[in-house]
Amino acid sequence: MRPIGRVSMFAISVIAAALAAAVATQAARSAGVEDFYKGKTVSLLIGYSVGGGYDAYGRLLARHFGKHLPGNPNVVPQNMSGAGSLKAANYLYSVAAKDGSVIGTFSRSQGIAPLLDKAEFDSTQFTWLGSVTDEVSLCVTGREAPVKTFSDLLVTPATFGSEGAGSDPNIFALLYRNVFGAKIKMVNGYPGTNEIQLATERGEVDGLCGLSWSTLKGRYPHWLTGNKKANILVQAGIKTQPELPDVPSASELAKQADQRQILKLMLIGQAMARPFAAPPGIPADRKAALIAAFERTTKDPDFIAEAERLNLEVNPVHADKLDALLAEAYAMPKDVIAKAAKAMSD
Q: Domain limits of the chain?
């Protein structure tokens, strides 16, 4: 046999040994992850009160997620409302155990909140698991409200409910008021969109911004059928919602360069609409297991079938995409971020 043959056989044996070692290492890691989760309870924090869209998605994921994690732990949803879900985001980032036993969901806007001086964490450091869907955000008013269209809102004052600084209703109301000139007065302090929706039906407020199309369709379908109880004024998203062809988009309204720049930053949140995350710094093998379990869950036929029954959209966004979106947001020019932060100032 020629020397080159002996070298080739040696190279093959080295590669084979390396592959065998990698397989053994992966098996050991998988066994370690399974041992960790077996018999455990995983807490799933939901940054809003019961009954809203984030709560619906959080509880839906909780019912299916455990069977896709090694060891099949129980997954228990826990509501932690406050400050437009900032309380839950802060807890997950700074207080929750960093061992893979706690995950959570909170406002899509929390990803860019630190850039707008609304949070004290670095959202690029969360262990992002993915998002169940991307989203279109709406401003809506009740049937009896004096404002029926976005054009009306530019000349007629209206009172909109909000959860407080950094929440979706707050951010989008400020966006339309401070960037586009809408005559919005905000009433803060509601724990979630469910309470604002009820307040709108009672006539306590005229409506709200930052309401997801999936929430409106899935949680409040009576607002859309028969004697419609809602006027949809405007939509905001990376792309428009095909089911709302007659509703103007924020992108169409952004005529000036400053408006387009600020809107681009705001719309990053819409692409990570129903995000789930774990704390920073969890062990690498558990991080990989959580991300893989999230991906498998969102492709699970039982999960998808239940989502369809609940009228909840599923259009998964991978963890890598969330990381890339936030990297893009954090890399935006400082002057654009400063303009956006000023616009988000109440």
A: 42-134+270-343, 137-269
Give the model's pLDDT for residue 30: 52
One-letter amino acid of 160: F
Residue 278 · residue 129 · CB < 8 Å: yes
The amino acid at residue 141 is T
d(CA 157, CA 140): 14
Asked if 81 and 54 touch (Cβ cutoff 8 Å), the reply is no
| CATH topology identical between 42-134+270-343 and 137-269 | yes
| Residue 247: partners with Cβ closer than 8 Å, 6 or more residues away | 138, 232, 233, 234, 235, 241
* Domain 137-269 class, CATH top level: alpha beta
φ and ψ at residue 4, rounded to 5 degrees: -60, -30
Phi and psi angles of residue 22, each rounded to the nearest 5 degrees, phi first: -65, -40
* Positions of the chain with pLDDT lower than 50, given as ranges: 1-7, 9-29
Q: What are phi and psi of 153, to 5 degrees?
A: -70, -20
C-alpha dist (Å) from residue 142 to 188, 201, 249:
18, 7, 19
* Residue 131: both structure tokens together: 């998002």
Give me the pLDDT at residue 10, please. Answer: 38
DSSP assigned state of 122: -
- Closest alpha carbon to 184 in 254, 251, 109, 234: 234
Helix axes 257-271, 334-343, angle to 10 degrees: 80
Max CA pair span of the chain: 91
Contact 160, 206 (CB under 8 A): yes
Quick one: pLDDT at residue 114? 92
| Complete edge-to-edge strand list for the sheet that includes strand 230-236 | 184-187, 158-161, 207-212, 137-142, 230-236
Q: Report pTM.
A: 0.79
Confidence at residue 227, expressed as pLDDT on a 0 to 100 scale? 73
Residue with tokens 């905001």: 236
Query: Hunting for tokens 């401070």 — which residue is that?
Result: 178
Domain 42-134+270-343 CATH class label: alpha beta
